[in-house]
Amino acid sequence: MNRPNMPLAVKVDAQLRPVWTRVERYVPPRSFGAVGRYGNAVELADGSVLVLCYYAGTPAAEDRPFYLLRLDGATGQLLQRHEFRSTICNRMAAFQLLADGDSAAYVLGACSAGPGGASVQAPYAARLSLRGLPAVVTAGASARPRPAEAAGLGRPYPNPAAGAVRVPYRRAAGTGPATLVLLDALGRRVRRVPVPAAPGGTLALPLAGLAAGLYWLRYEQAGAPVGPGRRLVVQP
């Protein structure tokens, strides 16, 4: 069977181990032969991720938008989908998303069809407002990490677990209330445990009553995820 390609995003941890994967489903209406593709991604200060998405192989006369997807950095769950249309390009390939300070981003790509379906081969650039979203994390910012960025979770044990699991944690000095959150495979919060004020330690998280399966542990500071999530397998 001839199956169309689908864009696949994979988030990995510092050891290049997969944390989550996401396949972008087609947004109707979809033209026959259209292929969804991802551009690059940038991380926001709250741990979420912005990803470019566009469609290749669409008819030249079809005014097809491109998309900016905001994903949960811990689970890959779709948080927001922003649609953008161009007045100068019907068929645009959005390759690159570049941050411009904290309130905007540049989208760079290529245009192969103009209004009405005219055939063109030209570069494309657009500036998108990111107002209302957390700041983009840049390489320059990572050289001087904020206190909250020093916080996070260690590896849970035992894993797989049944009954309860122990989770090491660390938190930055002077930060406010923090929470250990357990999410199911659909990204729903199923357990919450306050993190003590101590700089570090180990939390005990009860698992009684949970269905067996794959879960995610997440450290939240002021309601926002901090650091990488941790995968947990719950046994019956």
From TrEMBL:
Identification of the protein by name: T9SS type A sorting domain-containing protein
Q: Which organism is it from?
A: Hymenobacter gummosus
Domain of life assignment: Bacteria
